[in-house]
Amino acid sequence: MMKIDILTVLPELLESPFTHSIMKRAQEKGLLQIRVHQLRKWAVNKYGMVDDYQYGGGAGMVMMCEPLANAIDELQQEQPYDEIIYMTPDGKPFDQRTANGLSLKGNLLIICGHYKGIDERIRQLYVTREISIGDYVLSGGELAAAVVVDAIGRLLPGVLNDETSALTDSFQDNLLAPPVYTRPADFRGEKVPDILLQGDPKKVDDWRHEQSLQRTRDRRPDLLDD
Ligand code: 6GU
């Protein structure tokens, strides 16, 4: 079973994403365990402070070393982590390849940044991987962590079934997914392509591959570069 621990000052933001649909089933099947920890539990003063002014001045608070270090040390005693991931807009852009790789790991710890981020020394001493989910700034790492956990969780063996299979996803071979149709065959005069109605599986496969290529060339030519 894959275990994912998440450290955050806003655990409420991470309650709902994992209690529905596929992520819920993954946990019920015992394939994935997600635990969300309130970082303030490891605060070192009585006010539950986990952030402080930055050295050198400037706007914005920085997440302090001690609460993070104490939290990581304590959690790590329970189980070693294969990766300690810090969610940050200056991390490596997240993609399907990274999700595939992380889905093969055992235990992950994810740190959600807030304010101006975490003290650089925690990054040097503890963090093994820094992830961004795109070139825009979120008010905290929580929604980004939810994206990463969802992308990893659905790849774990046994989580998806034939109806939800990852094999036909966009990006699975660096191509976008082909268009899909369901009933009716004629909707307001817009027809489902004949090939799909004829029921020749080889022709359907070829058509879908051609559509994938065309779609990728049109919308994401960058994916075809490598
Ligand atoms: Cl991981 N965190 C924040 N705060 N903003 C982001 C992000 C992460 N990825 C893209 N924008």
First-to-last CA distance: 33 Å
Which regions are unreliable across 5 or more consecutive residues at pLDDT < 50?
none
CATH class of the largest domain: Alpha Beta
CATH superfamily of the largest domain: SPOUT methyltransferase, trefoil knot domain
The overall number of domains is: 2
Taken as a percent bin, the fraction of beta residues is 15-25%
CATH topology of the largest domain: Alpha/beta knot
- Just name the CATH architecture of the largest domain: 3-Layer(aba) Sandwich
Helix segment count? Answer: 7
Main sheet characteristics: 5 strands, parallel
**What's the shape?**
elongated
Radius of gyration: 22 Å
Specify the helix fraction band.
25-40%
Number of strands: 9
Arithmetic mean pLDDT: 96
Order of helices and strands: EHEEEHEHEHEHEEHH
Oligomer: single chain
Overall SS class:
alpha/beta
Q: Could you say which small molecules are bound to this protein?
A: 6-chloroguanine
Strand order of the largest sheet: 2-1-6-5-7
Subcellular location: Cytoplasm
Pfam family, one: tRNA_m1G_MT
Family: Belongs to the RNA methyltransferase TrmD family.
Function: Specifically methylates guanosine-37 in various tRNAs.
